[in-house]
Design a protein that fits this description.
43% helix, 4-stranded antiparallel beta sheet, globular, 4-stranded parallel beta sheet, 14% strand, alpha/beta, 3 domains, Rossmann fold
Length: 467
């Protein structure tokens, strides 16, 4: 079994194979820890997690590195505004990010480097670029990469097919930092008064690294000068990943990354997510609406990673129903099955088509479609008594492998697993019913249905059931 994936660099779907023939090494651009990650960020992280899980399910050893950006304009600005040490600000938001990752069932990277902890590597990389004539110091002490010195610049983003404008080149640069050309990008930012105490010594003077050089230095430190795959959102193709390629290959003279894996944006109710529009939702916002993290994960992997995905609150209700169907089949097959090691292809029966879809350009919507077709077939066979114990065991283990590849958890629908807002609605409905306030009870029942839940009334109590 072998995974294929679209390569942004070549514009083709290609096999994902390790350069060294053994362990597949890949790097994911992680969060900038100045606030909570939003659900658009987590679409990227969920798809990267599925990528890793599929590798592991088919038995491909891998090394997953995902960084923490704990020094940049935004983290420093928040540190100064709050009058708190930078480390205190970033530690708080890093812990929040880790908690959200755990709730969404994301596997932790094997290595999670921070930018601040890798300043020596970044300084060494900048020194090498200066020595080779690919970088220069400006009058204020900042250091810039000279894009004109790297003829291959633009291969990833097809930059030569577009025009370069000063305002669109790099979010890291501003008029306060002097550069020779609009295309050049900053490697080291000279200390400014507005940075407060957030600066470090270097051979170029006091200051801090640029965003792009951080990822190059961290990825090459842990994965080598050339590695297999680099991933991030499509918004990082230019300038971030383009600049990573330029500075890395200019410094080493070797190809930086073989395969580039980018995930498209998440829309919200058909529009762009924006703080000004009030639709930059976080995992806490999802919980506050009575939904669970596994429902959000299901929604985030329900669309192909190369196309924009439209998030709606209604989609979370549909996800709850889908997960309930899987939970019911799991129960009929005898409960969860522990996945021990990487299963061989025959062990996926009768779910081989689902894994097949994931191996074909990580086609998660096709995989889900095949999954529920298989669920329907298995339920029909179970109803007819047409599965013997060995077939049931194979189905149970195949389902476990598929759920593991998708990262879907199926908690039992106990009162502890019911979101608190849903429990509150149900309690209010029961109280209204006891008081014979039928209109209020009916209205609350409709709210429960909209949230994906139903109540089963008994003589002296009620039970909540997922729709």
């Amino acid at each position: 079994m072998r995974l294929t994936l679209y390569n942004t660099l070549t514009r083709e779907v290609e096999p994902v194979v390790p350069i060294n023939g053994r362990k597949l090494r890949f790097y994911c651009c992680g969060p900038t820890v100045y606030g909570p990650a939003h659900i658009g960020n987590f679409r990227t992280f969920v798809m990267q997690d599925v990528f890793r899980r599929v590798l592991e399910v088919i038995g491909q050893p891998c090394m997953h590195v995902r960084n923490i950006t704990d020094v940049d304009d935004k983290t420093i600005r928040q540190s100064v505004e709050l009058d708190l040490p930078l480390t205190e600000v970033t530690a708080h938001w890093t812990a929040r990010f880790h908690a959200d990752c755990a709730a969404l069932n994301l596997r932790s990277p094997h290595i999670e480097p921070s930018a601040v902890a890798h300043l020596p590597e970044q300084i060494a990389l900048i020194e090498k670029l200066i020595a080779k004539g690919h970088a220069y110091r400006s009058e204020d002490g900042s250091v810039y990469f000279k894009v004109a010195s790297f003829p291959a610049y633009g291969a990833l983003s097809r930059l030569k097919e577009r025009s370069i404008t000063t305002g669109a080149v790099d979010r890291e640069d501003s008029d306060e930092y002097e550069r020779d050309s609009a295309a050049d990008f900053v490697l080291w930012k000279a200390r400014r008064p507005e940075d407060g105490p957030n600066y470090w010594p270097s051979p170029f003077g006091e200051g801090r690294p640029g965003w792009h050089v951080e990822c190059s230095a961290m990825s090459m430190r842990h994965l080598g000068e050339s590695f297999d795959l680099h991933s991030g959102g499509v918004d990082l193709i230019f300038p971030h990943h383009e600049n990573e390629i330029a500075q890395s290959e200019a410094a080493t003279g070797r190809p930086f990354v073989r395969h580039w894996f980018h995930i498209a944006h998440l829309l919200v109710h058909g529009g762009k997510m924006s703080k000004s529009l009030g639709n930059l939702y976080t995992l806490d916002d999802v919980r506050d609406q009575g939904h669970r993290p596994e429902e959000l994960r299901y929604v985030l992997l329900s669309g192909g990673y190369r196309q924009q995905l439209n998030f709606t609150w209604e989609s979370l209700g549909a996800a709850r129903k889908a997960l309930a169907r899987l939970r019911e089949l799991q129960k009929r097959l005898g409960g969860p099955s522990e996945l021990v090691g990487a299963p061989k292809e025959r062990d996926f029966a009768p779910f081989r088509p689902v894994i097949g879809a994931l191996l074909e350009d990580l086609n998660t919507p096709e995989a889900l479609g095949r999954l529920f077709a298989t669920v329907k077939t298995l339920n029909q066979k179970l109803d007819a008594g047409a599965l013997d114990p060995l077939a049931i065991k194979a189905a149970r283990e195949g389902l476990a492998a598929v759920l593991d590849a998708l990262g879907l958890e199926l908690p039992a629908a106990t009162s502890e697993s019911v979101p608190e807002p849903v429990q509150k609605l149900a309690a209010e409905r029961w109280q209204a019913k006891q008081q014979r306030d039928w209109a209020t009870a009916d209205a609350l029942r409709e709210q429960l249905h909209a949230a994906g839940w139903a109540t089963k009334d008994e003589q002296s109590d009620y039970q909540l059931l997922p729709l």
